[in-house]
Write a structure and sequence with these properties.
Chain lengths: 186, 193
């Protein structure tokens, strides 16, 4: 059904937007249904259709749905906040993590003062800093992931954690497959 | 930048084109950092980045470029989840920290509530002390009365037989009053038990 191009089915949102014929085997059709034209419009504006085609072709078929959903999420964030995009959301979450960690440390110190120790009191700090300077709070805060964009299947952390190799926990970033690629100067 | 003698920016070098004076990429992609533009070009495309930058005021373009570079790096590292992987991970961290904080705060509240009943117990001890003192005062009264009266029935004042047979006498009345006074603190004490 997704890849059929007979007259009974509408073209996918991508082919409709690009004004081209939706062929059988169209790589966009399974992920951009015609009733969600806005989703493709955002992805096309930010990433470009040819770039997305290349990206999807490099992935296994069972990974493409998650990839499209994450691209759509990032594209929407970029459209909402053209300056900071997803980095605004990441900076906001990082500040939340730091603030909560401080509050938890203070609460555990109070518990230690009362002479009681709990399992939480002994828990080590678990904060991982991204290699990015915190940005000012974006004027338009991005809401949490909504159901449309929620990643299906196992969470990225669960998917990638077992593949991490070597290095202490502090240097392992659960969302980068454990690879130690050199990024840009940030 | 631009003009003869200077190097083209990293983007014009990669795209093999002439770097004009008003090149929109030149301020943000210096020739000594070619990887920065290469990765942005791979993920977003040069024309898309150019359009995005043109839509922004000049003073915001540097931040926009930095965030695009960050997101491009995340996408290349993780082609499936990109930045959403980082966001999802951080959201999980926030949730876990919030739960741990709630548990710790609940334990602190329990300890503080445990300290409050202890004060009540101390108050009860004070009450018992008062009862004891009242009993002592009554005993002193008994001794004083008996000493003042020089009553021959001193050793038998509490005897019910003596009490009944001497009901009408003044000394019997006094003994009866003392007994009634003594019973009050005992009743009061039993209320606390």
């Amino acid at each position: 059904m997704a890849s059929s191009s007979n007259s009974y089915n509408s073209p996918c949102a991508a082919c409709k937007f690009l004004r081209r014929k939706c062929m059988p085997g169209c790589i966009f059709a399974p992920y951009f249904p015609p009733e969600e034209p806005h989703k493709f419009a955002n992805v096309h504006k930010i990433f470009g259709a040819s770039n997305v085609t290349k990206l999807l072709n490099e992935l296994l078929p069972h990974q493409r749905e998650d990839a499209v959903n994450s691209l759509a999420y990032e594209a929407e964030a970029r459209v909402r906040d053209p300056v900071y995009g997803c980095v605004g959301a990441i900076s906001y979450l990082q500040r939340q993590v730091h603030r909560l960690q401080k509050e938890l440390d203070a609460a555990n110190a109070d518990l230690a003062h009362y002479g009681l120790s709990t399992s939480a009191a002994g828990a080590p700090g678990n904060v991982v800093d991204l290699v990015f300077q915190p940005q000012p709070l974006p004027s338009q805060q991005l809401p949490p992931l909504n159901p449309v964009y929620r990643l299906s299947g196992a969470s990225p952390v669960m998917n990638q954690m077992p593949r991490g190799t070597g290095g202490s926990y502090g240097t392992f970033l659960p969302w980068n497959n454990g690879h130690d690629q050199q990024g840009g100067n940030m | 930048m631009g003009g003869p003698g200077s190097s083209p920016c990293a983007s014009c070098k990669l795209l093999r084109r002439r770097c004009a004076k008003d090149c929109i990429f030149a301020p943000y992609f210096p020739p000594d950092d070619p990887h920065k533009f290469a990765i942005v070009h791979k993920v977003f495309g040069a024309s898309n980045v150019s359009k995005m930058l043109q839509e922004l005021p000049v003073h915001q373009r540097a931040d926009a470029v930095n965030s695009l570079v960050f997101e491009a790096n995340a996408r290349v590292r993780d082609p499936v989840y990109g930045c959403v992987g980082a966001i999802s991970y951080l959201q999980n961290q926030v949730s876990q920290l919030q739960m741990q904080l709630a548990v710790a705060q609940a334990e602190i509240l329990c300890i503080q509530m445990q300290n409050e009943p202890t004060l009540q117990s101390h108050h009860q001890v004070l009450e018992l002390d008062q009862d004891h003192k009242a009993l002592l005062l009554n005993n002193n009264n008994i001794n004083n009365c008996n000493t003042n009266n020089n009553n021959n029935n001193f050793g038998y004042a509490m005897s019910s037989g003596q009490f009944n047979s001497n009901f009408a006498s003044p000394s019997s009345i006094m003994q009866m009053q003392m007994q009634m006074q003594m019973q009050d603190p005992l009743k009061q004490e039993s209320l606390w038990t």
